[in-house]
Design brief:
Length: 284
């Protein structure tokens, strides 16, 4: 059995293949970001899926691409855990940007960006992946991500920058008691995922001028920090992965045009593209 996964901070999508590269099952687990989730929680999230707990010895290869897997320490945490749980498996753990490249560009040069719970970008020259900056996560970076917009919605609400009509809708949808927010941010696991939950509010009001302005500002910040530094023109394909990019693709294209660039494609969930790439290129 071969397991291939695209893992974010909020969720991880898995597909299992047999020796003939045919799909056995697909399953979704909770997020497996080793940078913010303790090992015991990572273990529990894997084992709570019956498809895994019933096939631990049958797995021979694991390809896991995940948020938070951009450093040696974080990668080793997951690799060691997978090797413990799946004793007969050869394990590959890599950053989610590599999965995004495989899913979007295949073997062709492109800039590939992720806008999900977190955000990232890379330039693939056809052989190697280059990043203009090491990702330091939701507190310092993650422009235009779910947690980025969640933070701004909360901040705008409490600073009374959010228009009153929008603030009234925001109050009805979320518990905005300060103690509740601070408890989730500073005492609970996965504060990045908690913040990203607030971004779902924007999906319901994507035609509202306040939301449009917020999105444009966030996307512009992302382009300035994570796309323009590659110094590529519109002849270089640019792909985006993730729900934020998918649901607001029209705004994304507007911001790209502002910088004389063009979006080549937007993929909400890359797992199926990722499977096809592995079938053709990586699986033994």
């Amino acid at each position: 059995m071969i397991l291939i996964a695209d893992g974010g901070s909020t969720k991880a999508d898995w597909i299992a293949l047999d020796e003939n590269k045919e799909q056995l099952f697909k399953v979704r687990t909770g997020g497996l970001n080793p940078a913010v989730v303790p090992v015991e929680v990572l273990r529990a999230r894997i084992l709570e899926a019956d498809e895994f707990s019933e096939n631990l010895d049958a797995v021979t290869q694991i390809f896991f691409y995940g948020a938070g897997c951009g450093t040696d320490v974080a990668t080793k945490i997951l690799k060691d855990l997978f090797e413990e749980l799946f004793p007969n498996a050869e394990v590959v753990v890599a950053e989610d940007t590599l999965a995004a490249v495989y899913a979007a560009a295949g073997n062709d040069p492109a800039i590939v960006c992720i806008l999900g719970t977190g955000s990232n970008s890379s330039y693939f020259d056809g052989e190697t992946i280059q990043s203009n900056a090491v990702s330091l996560g939701y507190i310092v970076m993650d422009e235009a991500s779910g947690n980025y917009f969640g933070k701004r919605l909360i901040r705008n609400y409490f600073y009374k920058v959010m228009p009153p009509y929008m603030a009234e809708k925001f109050e009805k949808e979320f518990n905005l008691e300060p103690d509740h927010i601070k408890f989730n941010l500073y005492r609970q696991p996965n504060p990045n995922t908690y913040l990203a939950n607030f971004a779902s509010f924007m999906f319901h009001y994507k035609e509202d001028p306040y939301v449009l302005n917020l999105m444009e500002d966030g996307f512009d910040a992302f382009f300035r920090s994570r796309v323009l530094p590659y110094n590529k023109d519109k002849s270089t394909p640019i792909y985006f992965i993730g729900s934020i990019a998918y649901y607001f693709s029209d705004i994304l294209e507007k911001v790209a045009a502002k910088h004389d660039l063009k979006i080549t494609g937007v993929i909400q969930r890359p797992i199926h593209n990722l499977i096809e790439y592995h079938k053709q290129n990586l699986i033994k």
